[in-house]
Design brief:
Blueprint: H1 3-15, H2 19-32, H3 37-49, H4 53-69, H5 73-89, H6 93-108, H7 116-119, H8 122-129, H9 134-150, H10 154-170, H11 174-189, H12 195-211, H13 215-230, H14 239-253, H15 256-272, H16 280-292, H17 295-306, H18 315-322, H19 326-339, H20 342-359, H21 362-378, H22 382-398, H23 402-419, H24 422-438, H25 442-459, H26 462-472, H27 482-492, H28 497-504, H29 508-522, H30 527-536
């Protein structure tokens, strides 16, 4: 194939979103004959979508130089503007500032820059958003949006609405922020946005919808992202994040098998080059492991998620709680909530309530419930209403008001059922059962417990099952506690009792006692037998 025909084939492949073929052909032509400025821009886009950010940055830098050499100032401003935005995505803020300044300088020298006058202001606005001055960021995004609308640039308007929406949310105007997201996603769904900004917008707004307890938007927007990714199966960037977001929704919906598959796919796509999944892929694997009782592997996955620079919260604190490290859970969730912006803090509040309840600080739990309830009044969603009722029930139970706790738990049970969230519904039934026990109605309590047990067993929620067995007083002899499961998993890795104690903040004597209980319950006598049991039963 000649260079000319290879170039034409590469352009066609890119137009048809056959990204692997497009990247191979365009890179080949570039290596042998070099590419013109517009084709270098195309190569930059294709490389980014194939999970090759350094190659993308290099191609876009060369496109900028080629545009300048050809006196194409519009092309130069465009290339510099995208470089500034892409470098922010990659965390290279110093180089982003440099390229943003170049973009502004080139555009300002143009007699009629048109929508480019807004586009080159976009990266500085995004940088301003991360600087802790949302008021100034809002002003800048509104300026860009005005320019985009004046010149009929729908793509620029969509990207700007993402930034403006995030700014409004940071300022506490959550409903208005999501209104901006609606506009951005309408453009994405209509196919009016190019691949890179479409992926950025979709993944960002879905993540925020989940944090806002807005299950309807998260589900609808994930459907758009899923269809978009399916239409271009050779795309790597955004594909891992797509699977991670799907895993989170599957967990809520009780489709834990699908969640496991999605989380593994997210991790594989991250390894293939989707750098954007660096947090979501391991975090969702950790969440599934925590809920199923695979505590050791969950902790490792939370650690990997934390290496991204984002705190793996609230999952890590809830894991500490599950394995009995209550004080550590309390310290970490308090620190995270205190240092979070208001929007993130609201997302952490349900875990704050659960952990404070377990730690016995009823007043701290009450304050968190009040804060969560206030959020529900300002931006109500069905999932947030269910969450408020569930956490209020937990708090009221330990506060000594079982009647009110029972009413709240039943409200939560109905709300979770309407949302199609079986695990959370079962947890609320357990709270209702606890309240009924406090009220002396043991028979009604066990009806709630049995209903919850069926759900936990179907999902494979071993920690919840073990807790429920204790409540019902019928724990089978062979059922291990959550702590015993954790000790067994660590034994299976070859750790000594001392090393296990150091890992779990337990004394060596306590570890030995747990191991003795494990041997007795399982009818085993050696560490090797315990290791074999763990592997045979899928515990590691």
């Amino acid at each position: 194939m000649t260079s000319s025909s290879a170039l034409d084939a590469g352009r066609t492949a890119a137009a048809e979103r056959r990204w692997a073929e497009a990247y191979e052909l365009l890179a080949r032509v570039d290596a042998t004959d070099g590419l013109a400025s517009s084709d270098l821009e195309l190569l930059a886009t294709v490389a980014l979508l194939r999970g090759e950010p350094p190659a993308s940055i290099a191609a876009l830098s060369r496109a900028y130089e080629a545009h300048l050499a050809g006196e194409d100032t519009a092309g130069a401003a465009r290339s510099a503007g995208w470089l500034a935005l892409n470098l922010i995505e990659l965390g290279d803020f110093t180089r982003s500032v440099t390229w943003a300044a170049r973009a502004m300088r080139v555009a300002n020298a143009m007699a009629e820059p048109g929508a480019l006058a807004g586009f080159v202001r976009l990266a500085p606005a995004v940088a301003q958003l991360g600087s802790g001055e949302p008021g100034e960021a809002r002003r800048r995004f509104e300026e860009v949006l005005t320019i985009a609308e004046r010149h009929g640039d729908g793509e620029l308007a969509a990207v700007t609405r993402l930034g403006l929406g995030k700014t409004l949310i940071e300022m506490g105007a959550i409903a208005e922020g999501f209104g901006c997201f609606d506009g951005a996603m309408t453009a994405v769904a209509a196919g009016d946005v190019a691949p890179v900004p479409a992926g950025v917008i979709s993944c960002a707004v879905i993540s925020d919808a989940i944090m806002a307890f807005d299950l309807d938007r998260a589900t609808a927007w994930t459907g758009v992202l899923d269809r978009w990714c399916r239409d271009q199966p050779e795309m790597i960037t955004f594909s891992g994040q797509r699977h991670a977001l799907q895993a989170g929704l599957h967990l809520i919906r009780g489709a834990w098998g699908e969640a496991s598959t999605a989380a593994e796919l997210a991790l594989s796509r991250f390894r293939a080059g989707d750098y954007r999944a660096v947090y979501g892929a391991p975090y969702q694997l950790a969440e599934l492991g925590r809920l199923r009782g695979a505590f050791h592997s969950a902790e490792e996955s939370y650690r990997r998620a934390g290496e991204s620079g984002w705190e793996p919260q609230p999952g890590l604190s809830l894991l500490h709680l599950a394995v009995g490290r209550t004080q550590r859970a309390q310290e970490e969730i308090r620190r995270s909530a205190a240092g979070a912006d208001p929007f993130t803090r609201r997302f952490l509040l349900p875990a704050v309530v659960e952990i404070e309840v377990a730690a016995g600080d009823v007043e701290a739990a009450r304050r968190a419930v009040d804060e969560l309830r206030a959020a529900g009044r300002s931006t109500p969603t069905p999932m947030l209403a269910a969450t408020v009722a569930a956490e209020e029930a937990r708090m009221l139970l330990v506060a000594g008001d079982p009647s009110a706790a029972l009413a709240a738990a039943r409200d939560a049970t109905g709300a979770w059922q309407a949302l199609g969230a079986p695990y959370e519904r079962a947890r609320s039934r357990v709270t209702a059962g606890r309240a009924l026990l406090e009220l002396g109605d043991r028979e009604a309590a066990h009806v709630e417990f049995r209903g919850a047990r069926e759900v936990f067993a179907a999902l494979g929620a071993d920690p919840a099952l073990a807790e429920l067995a204790d409540l019902m007083g019928d724990r089978p002899a062979g059922v291990l506690t959550a702590r015993e499961l954790e000790v067994l998993r660590l034994v299976s890795t070859g750790l000594t009792n001392r090393a296990i104690g150091a890992r779990l903040s337990l004394s060596e004597k306590t570890v030995a006692r747990h191991l003795s209980n494990i041997f007795g319950k399982l009818g085993l006598s050696t560490r090797a037998a315990a290791t074999a049991y763990a592997y045979e039963n899928g515990l590691v």
